[in-house]
Amino acid sequence: MNRKILAFSVAAITIAAMLLTVGSGVVLAQVVASATGSGQFHEFPGPNGYRTFTFSAQTDSSGITTGVTQGYSRSVPLSWQGTLNCLDVEGNVATMSGVVTDVIPNPNALGILPGFFLVFQVIDNGEGKNSPPDLVSLTFFEATPPFPCLQSVDGIFATTPIENGNVQVHK
User: Fold this and answer.
1) How many CB atoms lie within 10 A of CB 70?
2) What is the C-alpha separation between 70 and 39, in angstroms, rounded?
3) Sign of the torsion angle spanned by Cα atoms 138, 144, 146, 151
4) Distance (Å, whole) CA 150 – CA 169
5) Residue 40 burial class via C-beta count within 10 angstroms: exposed 0-12, middle 13-18, buried 19 and up
6) Before 77, cis peptide (omega within 30)?
7) d(CA 120, CA 97)
């Protein structure tokens, strides 16, 4: 008997909250595009030639993109983190850009600093062992915003196969 009363109470509270939200005119934004992934790839031959990466980005129905990314290039070595504020999804291709928030460089770390802009691209080639590997571009860094987050950006092409990882792109 107590379980039935508890279940009824929870259901009543949930319905009341929904009615208050609808009645207040609050509209919750829905995710309309997303891209997530992680993995590694060889950027240079040899045991220190790996680059690892992870990212997650989503755009909601109001056009707001949020996300994060991080990477580590063992060959430099250079580690970075960033926030993503732009996601462009065309089919199975996602181009993302944002701002570097943290860098852990060596003394010759290419001069990349927090506040720099970053952009990269991924291609989701499907799931399962019979699918070709997903692809990723290098991450490009600039001191000033050089390009919008669009598929047509010159020189940003996801052509490197991802090893030991996966990318998922949805729209």
Assistant:
1) 16
2) 11
3) positive
4) 15
5) middle
6) yes
7) 7
> Which tokens belong to 7?
């279940």
Smallest CA-to-CA distance from 33 within 71, 78, 66, 73 is with 66
Per-residue pLDDT reduced to its tens digit, 63-120: 999 999 999 988 878 899 999 999 999 999 999 999 999 998 765 567 888 888 999 9
For 105-171, the three-class secondary structure string (H helix, E strand, C coil) is ECCCCCCCCCCCEEEEEEECCCCCCCCCCCEECCCEEECCCCCCCCCCCCCCCCCEECEEEEEEEEC
Single out the residue of 87, 91, 93 nearest to residue 148, CA to CA: 87
Residue 135 corresponds to which tokens in the numbers above? 């692809």
Pairing of strands 78-90, 65-73: antiparallel
31 touches 89 (CB < 8 A): no
d(CA 51, CA 41): 6
The reported pTM is: 0.77
DSSP-derived 3-state class of residue 15: helix
d(CA 141, CA 114): 10
Quote the CA–CA distance of 118 and 142 in Å, as a whole number: 6
